[in-house]
Amino acid sequence: MKKILLTLGTVAVIASMQSCKMKSAESAVQGDAASKAYVAPGKYDEFYNFVSGGFSGQVTVYGLPSGRLLKVIPVFSLFPENGYGYNEETKGMLNTTNGQVPWDDQHHLELSQTNGEQDGRWLFANANNTPRIARIDLTTFKTMEIIQIPNSAGNHSSPFITENTEYVVAGTRFSVPLGDQDVPISTFKQNFHSTASFISVDKTTGHMNIAFQIVLPGMNLDLSHAGKGPSHDWFFFSSYNTEQAYTLLEVNASQKDKDYVVAVNWKKAEEYAKSGKGKKVAVDYAHNTFDDDKQTTSSVTEKEVIMLDPKDCPDMVYMIPCPKSPHGCDVDPSGEFIVGSGKLAALIPVFSFTKLTKAIADKQFEGDFGGIPIIKYEAALHGEVKKPGLGPLHTEFDGKGNAYTSMFLSSEVVKWRLSDLQVLDRAPTYYSVGHLMVPGGDTKKPWGKYLVAYNKITKDRYLPTGPELCQSAQLYDISGDKMQLILDFPTTGEPHYAQACPASLIKDKQVKFFDINKNHHEFVTMGEKKANVVRKGNRVDVYMTAIRSHLVPDNIEGVYVGDDVYFHVTNLEQDWDIPHGFAIKNNTGAELLIMPGETVTLRFMPQKQGIYPYYCTDFCSALHQEMSGYMRVSFPAQWDPKLGIHVT
Ligand code: K7E
Ligand code: CUA
């Protein structure tokens, strides 16, 4: 959530709020706060915190409560630090039907679940801009799969999952014509659609597949969450711009009093898809999977998707009116309450699943939206949280009957009770909080000890760094009645949603190195004796090994200007935390960072004759500086400058 309708009035409100908060900032941090966030040197954090990178396209991993940055996981953006997206093995991960897309805007994360609880297997991440979903393996912290979503744009209500990770969803923030048709923008109402895609996840391998897409009227689907427990079969999406405006959205998409929460019975949808109620539609989308065995990405173009139209599928989709341009759509741990956060509303509506099912049974409808029945607001409503603050965005839960909502405009976190909707506490954020996160706070079993607010604006909180200041996270202890601010820490990119789980769920499952005997990479070098240089026409394959503290071969001659050289570097180490790097002078791509037991390939096309040193970039031993070599590049007699190739 980057922008909000800001009038001069609200700006003034924010400004005045911020100035009074600056005073209270110190009093908000109490004496024992530092000790609560203190993790002594050599001690581990209690939680892993996975934070979306926003416009960095990556995912970052922090420890909680210390706020220590543990890792940047490259997902949707090139990452020269380890060669992700540059080397031959992972290039294909960023493939789309529009070629390699080297960047994206990454907003939401979801950890895989079993029975509504975190199971520590995978982390799913969405790409907003060129619609994609990624799956990250939590034994290696590597991106293993990226699937492109067709008939989609602004893939924002994604990648939320069902209780047993049956499906990960993708909903369109921007409606577009299906099948990328070329139509006038003014035909929005007739031709533009939003879609909700349900991507099935294989229970054992995690492999994703688009099971079906539900076609909805043109509007902006914003966020979503699956039901749980009694509401297991349902998925809830927030929507805005149900005015169906296509210009001046700031004004035109804020006309109506209420937009909708879209309630989708995915179990029904699944049955409809299986019984052939859907239409098979020709599409094109890339599906990239990293093969652990071959250590390479295979990228295929998928050709078909099943589309379900609510008109042909009764009882599958309902609309629940929700004030006003809702953003977050959050389901409490019991699965009974669905919280819609109208970013322009002065209250928080809370819907009851029991009442919703009754309203459907009693047909308490008030018309339809594009043929989809609209349930009466009051019929589905549990109640409203009155005067919670300004600009409610997102809500998480502590598992003790309380909810926590972020307030963008009034820069605070508000704690309220689900049963009677009373506001219990409020804590200032510095400043303009977007998402917030309680470890496990969107599952059946929140861990409930901490809350992190992810803020858009830091202003005066840190040393200034030119025109752009870092975004920031703030950690609160929520174990008592009152929230207590205990730590600030800067984040990379722009943080949106985040997830956290107990360290114990993940830390003992870590892959320490890859078994070299199971390395079936096409260009593996099984031992130094096998190291070799092989020429076929213009192509030169260098079978290279790396082990402390030398590269084999370390002298290469017979390479010519115009050759296409592939360095396949196998790290022979079988020991934890001993990667080797590989870089060669004048290479216009990135380096390689090769994990123990892995083979990774750098492609290099020398443009000029000369001597090209190459070396290991990761300080791996006392003789790391010696871990280097020379490649001689000659200008061959057979060189044909007209053809630009080396003629043999
Ligand atoms: Cu509120 Cu994109 Cu989830 Cu940001 S979104 S804040
Ligand atoms: Cu290997 Cu430095």
Please estimate the helix content: under 10%
Class computed from helices, strands and strand pairing: mainly beta
| Unreliable parts | 1-24
The pLDDT mean sits at 94
Bound molecules: sulfanyl-(tricuprio-$l^{4}-sulfanyl)copper, dinuclear copper ion
Major sheet summary line:
11 strands, mixed
Number of strands: 47
Give the helix tally.
Answer: 7
| Beta-strand content estimate | 35-45%
The shape is: globular
The radius of gyration is 27 Å
Cα-to-Cα separation, first versus last residue: 58 Å
Kindly report the oligomeric state of this protein. single chain
Topology record:
Layout: H1 8-28, H2 33-37, E1 47-52, E2 59-64, E3 69-73, E4 95-96, E5 99-100, E6 109-114, E7 117-127, E8 132-137, E9 142-148, E10 155-157, E11 167-172, E12 176-177, H3 188-191, E13 192-201, E14 208-217, E15 220-226, E16 234-240, H4 249-252, E17 258-265, H5 266-274, E18 279-291, E19 296-308, E20 317-323, E21 326-331, E22 337-342, E23 347-352, H6 353-361, E24 365-369, E25 372-375, H7 377-380, E26 381-386, E27 392-397, E28 402-407, E29 412-417, E30 423-428, E31 433-437, E32 450-455, E33 471-477, E34 484-491, E35 498-502, E36 532-536, E37 539-547, E38 550-552, E39 555-560, E40 564-571, E41 580-584, E42 592-594, E43 599-604, E44 610-615, E45 628-634, E46 639-640, E47 645-646
Parallel strand pairs: 14-19, 37-40, 39-45
Antiparallel strand pairs: 1-2, 1-35, 2-3, 4-5, 6-7, 7-8, 8-9, 9-18, 10-11, 11-13, 12-13, 13-14, 15-16, 16-17, 17-20, 18-19, 21-22, 22-23, 23-26, 24-25, 27-28, 28-29, 29-30, 31-32, 32-33, 33-34, 36-37, 37-38, 40-43, 41-42, 41-44, 44-45, 46-47
The site of dinuclear copper ion (CUA) has 8 residues, from loops.
